[in-house]
Amino acid sequence: MKKIIIALLCLSFLLILGGCKSEDADSTAPATPTDVATKDEVLYEDNKIIGTWVCDDINKECYFIFDEKGDAYAKWGTCTVYGYYDYYDDEKLYDIDIPNFLYNEYSATFSKDKMTLKSDEYEYTFKKATMPKVEIKAPNNLTVDKAIVGDWQSVDNYECYRFNEDGTAVITDLYSDATIDCKYGCKDGKVTIYSMSSPENLNEKELTYKALDDGNLVLNDYTYEPVQN
Predict the structure, then answer these.
(1) What values do phi and psi take at 94, rounded to 5?
(2) What is the pTM of this model?
(3) Average pLDDT, stretch 154-163?
């Protein structure tokens, strides 16, 4: 079940992240990545969880990042899942919420470059790591159609597209609070979107598109409305 949940998450993002584990997901209200609360102060002194970690029990190509203000991320390739964490000093517990990956209260132990997070049901061992730079290996000389440039949100689900004039794009899943950084090119009424599921693995997705007279955009027969910034 754990592997199926992660596989479905990644497939919905046009990515494939094989051999993953996570805790069974809980339904939560949708939120955009920009809605993630950021604390103004460091959680507490000597916060050893701060940094970048990998966990082979989840996936060796997925990086978990905890910053000094309580924001937390799961990143693989050009995909990012946004979350947060807090620390309860009286109970010595971390409350971590990274959707589809970590969302529970955990006790934490640290030893050199290792961290163990343990809840009532799960135990994960992490190692300190440095996330590699990921470059989207898309073809050169991609053509941009100004008709699709802008921010678009589906009228049927929580999916959003941002097509920039420079040929970059961002796909956002508002329900899972996650994004994919992409490049794209247009030709003959089709847009091809390129993203990375790891530093080496390029993913391609081709969509038909049509700009409507009412200002909306159709992608593969689904209607998207412009988002006013």
Answers:
(1) -95, 130
(2) 0.81
(3) 95
